[in-house]
């Protein structure tokens, strides 16, 4: 087969976690356009699921939620070829170490680290048996550039995810399964846009001023703006495609130059 953008994932079954909005939705849409059969998961089913995307409602921060997804996918489809562990986030309070409880830490670890670990564990045996598969872990530049005063548990759990992803690749790449990490910087999702609007309203400034202030807090974004969800999705689309067949065990940073070191 001559691969094109429209068919390079034809016959492949892909699962995207956190796939109901933002970057996850953009990734799911991108894989669908490339010909994959796409399953998306999130806690709640949105009203605007794209035609052709199968949806499973599950709370992946729990063991039961992860097991539900693994069971439903394998029962209905029999296998999984591509797993994009996109779900993640931080709901912990800002203020540094002193304000964080054990529950805050455990919540971040379950969401950002254990959720992908459990799904990997559920789907990897089938991939190894067939001698092929791709796993993408969506981490964050905060693994290397933590904002200790606002997202300390999130940054620590994403750093653990990057380390785990590399080690997993070392184990399963010889068995035919590629494992990669994508670490975005700030992404201007709809949620980020709403946050900029709230900051602008509370400060009496403009959305542009609020955006610039956040970029300054990150130490600056040389490219001059946050990423768009579709830009991250395009990178993931390439990495899971046959064109990236030799790539494994690597972290790809997409941050517009935010991280100031080599």
From TrEMBL:
InterPro entries: NAD(P)-bd_dom_sf, Sc_DH/Rdtase_CS, SDR_fam. Keywords: Oxidoreductase. Coiled coil: none annotated. It comes from the Bacteria. SUPFAM superfamilies: NAD(P)-binding Rossmann-fold domains. Belongs to the short-chain dehydrogenases/reductases (SDR) family. NCBIfam families: PRK06523.1. This is SDR family oxidoreductase.
